[in-house]
Amino acid sequence: MANMNKMLKQAQKMQAEIMKVQQEAEKETAEATTGGGMVKAVANGKQQVVEIKIDPQVVDPDDVEMLEDLILAAVSEAQRKALEAVEAKMSKITGGMNIPGMF
To answer: Percent of the chain at pLDDT above 90?
Structure first.
């Protein structure tokens, strides 16, 4: 029974640490650029895009598709980096266990 109580306390501690990381994830950001820095996207740890910057030089009314591709690539990479950073922190807490629904 003492072993079960110890496991329960460890699980509660892990849950508290996971919640802390989830809350901190909103404040932390990851950035990605494309087009040699012409398009920048920033995403938070919840993979929400929080900022996009576009250099006016890349805006060409005759080639909107290129701009769309640059934006999409920057956003996707920023979200991937943000997720990777949060997963790394969660892995430290959980010892690499994959816990569905963590974030």
So the answer is: 51
